[in-house]
């Protein structure tokens, strides 16, 4: 059973709590006094506020509230509050900003785009000011310190639980090495770099930190690359202060990033700077249990982050190609559409992989569950979006409603419903991600117009809903299905990690609802379907996303324990996967174009 690391410190907890409280109250008073409004979305200020903490931070109320949460849970020593509730609340606040507040601010106040003191440098060729240099180093550096502190706490928890052998390294050597690295990072602020180069350094540093923390937390036994003595880590957990150099679990990808920054600023010395950075990376790798694997990890993370624009461009172009790849084959009164292949294949894989986790005994129960969910997905969309033009739409939130009836159906057959719900929650993000390829071809879930170069995709095929229903042919639109695919891809590994740690099925299902709801709230803000109603400045599916999050929170509170399931393989898993895959393919990829009856046509 997964247990969160215990962290308790009255001194640090109260310090963080009081800091957050002062920041939040200060920001609220600034909105009321300078903005002539309330710190509420329902009663927004009349004027855009740039005074008080708003000259330093864009959203100080949320920053303050986040600090309050951390302080409270550190004071009371609540592992669930610190490691589960706090990150979820922070993600929810980010979703509210990205999915609503920033959009509304841009509409109401042109000056909202202006940077604040702690903003990163702009993407221009201008010469940076001193605060730009400071932020380009200070912001990613602070985030990296936080990341490493979190990793240390989790690593100590993992090693204490597993009692595995750890590599004992020379702490003095690590301290000297880390101190040198800190000096090199600080030196970046003084290099003759342009604003865009400093911005690239900062974003790359933040990207490396985020990627390392993500991988370390879902796979802690193999991704913490420096192993400190247990008593040193314990001193972090119990609240005793250590020198910063001893807290610094540095990643080689960061060292490669530093070498890249120095080589740009000092072109005559670029070979020398790269050589020094490579030497330091080799030393770091030698201090780990797996030098070759560590070096490989450094390079992979570094390349992914610095080549993120190329990665995004490949994803964007691929999405645009798929969006315009509609093909259909008509046999008399029956039409087969190629986008049904994607969802059929996704359903097939979902059953197969679920069978690998729970065995052949649950294979047909998963099929029954899937059939009921698809039926309710169609009924929901028929009620919300059905029209003369949309005879057979499908809706994701109808599938969530269908879970209730599917659960009852599975219960009647004598299966353990929580095992089914748990294992389906694990693979549903990836099933949905593959299914979003159908959305690209069909044109459903499409984005609104955007003017950012290199961000949008264009639809041209006349069969696409974008062209036939929304009349946005050739316009650059937000690739919202692609946004969803990326988010769901990362969610899937988080839930799989929880499954392998024998986490409660209710918690896995609850986190599935919460995380997908958070992503959906943001995605919906950038969608542009004309048939989706807007209620109180939010799109209908943003409200359903909020409801999904609330239900997910309730699910996480249910006292459901994980059962030991022997995953016995059998060919029934394959046959069951074929049945659900074919049904899904037929439901979403085969229609009757000559008929005008309800549920007859997909287009």
UniProtKB/TrEMBL annotation:
Keywords: Cell membrane, Membrane, Transferase, Transmembrane, Transmembrane helix. The keyword Zinc-finger does not apply. It is a multi-pass membrane protein. GO terms for molecular function: transferase activity. Pfam families: LGT, PEMT. The chain crosses the membrane at residues 12-35, 56-76, 82-99, 134-155, 175-193, 200-220, 232-257, 269-289, 295-315, 336-356, 362-382, 394-411, 417-434, 482-499, 505-522, 543-561, 573-592. It is found in: Endomembrane system. It comes from the Bacteria. PANTHER family: PHOSPHATIDYLGLYCEROL--PROLIPOPROTEIN DIACYLGLYCERYL TRANSFERASE (PTHR30589:SF0), PROLIPOPROTEIN DIACYLGLYCERYL TRANSFERASE (PTHR30589). Belongs to the Lgt family. This is Prolipoprotein diacylglyceryl transferase. It comes from Carboxylicivirga marina. The lineage of its organism: Bacteria, Pseudomonadati, Bacteroidota, Bacteroidia, Marinilabiliales.
């Amino acid at each position: 059973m997964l247990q969160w690391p215990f962290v308790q410190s009255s001194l640090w907890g109260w310090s963080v709590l009081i800091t957050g409280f002062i920041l939040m109250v200060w920001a609220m008073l600034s909105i009321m006094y300078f903005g002539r409004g309330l710190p509420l979305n329902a009663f927004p200020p009349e004027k855009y506020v740039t005074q008080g903490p708003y000259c330093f931070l864009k959203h100080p109320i949320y920053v303050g509230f986040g600090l309050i949460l951390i302080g409270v849970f550190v004071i009371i020593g609540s592992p669930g509050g610190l490691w589960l509730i706090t990150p979820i609340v922070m993600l929810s606040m980010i979703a509210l900003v990205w999915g609503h507040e920033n959009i509304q601010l841009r509409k109401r106040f042109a000056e909202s785009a202006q940077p604040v003191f702690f903003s990163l440098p702009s993407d221009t060729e201008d010469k940076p000011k001193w605060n730009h240099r400071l932020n380009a180093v200070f912001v990613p550096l602070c985030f990296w310190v936080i990341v490493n502190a979190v990793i240390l706490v989790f690593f100590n928890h993992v090693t204490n639980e597993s009692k595995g052998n750890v590599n004992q390294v020379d702490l003095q050597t690590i301290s000297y090495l880390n101190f040198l690295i800190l000096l090199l990072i600080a030196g970046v602020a003084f290099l003759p770099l342009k604003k865009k180069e400093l911005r690239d350094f900062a974003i790359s540093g933040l990207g490396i930190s985020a990627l390392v923390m993500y991988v370390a937390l879902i796979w802690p036994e193999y991704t913490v690359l420096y192993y400190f003595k247990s008593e040193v880590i314990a001193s972090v957990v119990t609240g005793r202060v250590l020198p910063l150099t001893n807290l610094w679990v540095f990643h080689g990808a960061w060292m490669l990033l530093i070498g890249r920054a120095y080589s740009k600023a000092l072109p005559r010395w670029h070979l020398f700077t790269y050589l020094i950075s490579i030497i330091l990376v080799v030393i770091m790798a030698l201090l780990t249990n797996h030098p070759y694997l560590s070096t490989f990890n450094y390079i992979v993370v570094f390349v992914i982050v610095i080549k993120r624009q190329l990665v995004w461009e490949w994803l964007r172009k691929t999405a645009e190609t798929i969006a315009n790849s509609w093909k259909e084959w008509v046999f008399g009164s029956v039409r087969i559409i190629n986008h049904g292949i994607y969802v059929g294949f996704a359903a097939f894989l979902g059953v197969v992989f679920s069978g690998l986790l729970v065995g052949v005994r649950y294979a047909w129960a998963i099929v029954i569950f899937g059939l009921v969910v698809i039926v309710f997905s169609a009924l929901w969309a028929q009620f919300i979006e059905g029209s003369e033009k949309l005879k057979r739409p499908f809706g994701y939130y109808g599938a969530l409603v269908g879970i209730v009836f599917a659960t009852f159906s599975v219960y009647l057959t004598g299966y353990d419903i929580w095992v089914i719900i748990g294992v389906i929650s694990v693979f549903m993000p990836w099933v949905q991600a593959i299914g979003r390829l159908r959305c690209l071809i069909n044109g459903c879930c499409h984005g609104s117009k955007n003017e950012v170069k290199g961000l949008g995709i264009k639809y041209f095929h006349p069969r696409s809903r974008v062209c036939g229903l929304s009349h946005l042919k050739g316009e650059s639109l937000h690739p919202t299905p692609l946004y969803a695919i990326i988010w769901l891809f990362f969610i899937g590994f988080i839930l799989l990690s929880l499954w392998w740690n024998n986490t409660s099925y209710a918690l896995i299902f609850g986190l599935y609802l919460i995380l997908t709801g958070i992503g959906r709230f943001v995605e919906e803000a950038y969608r542009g379907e004309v048939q989706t109603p807007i209620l109180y400045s939010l799109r209908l599916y943003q409200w359903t996303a909020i409801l999904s999050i609330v239900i997910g929170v309730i699910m996480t509170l249910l006292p459901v324990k994980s059962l030991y399931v022997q995953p016995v393989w059998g060919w029934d898993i394959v046959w069951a996967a074929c049945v659900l895959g074919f049904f899904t393919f037929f439901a979403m990829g085969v229609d009757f174009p000559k008929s005008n009856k309800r549920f007859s046509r997909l287009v």
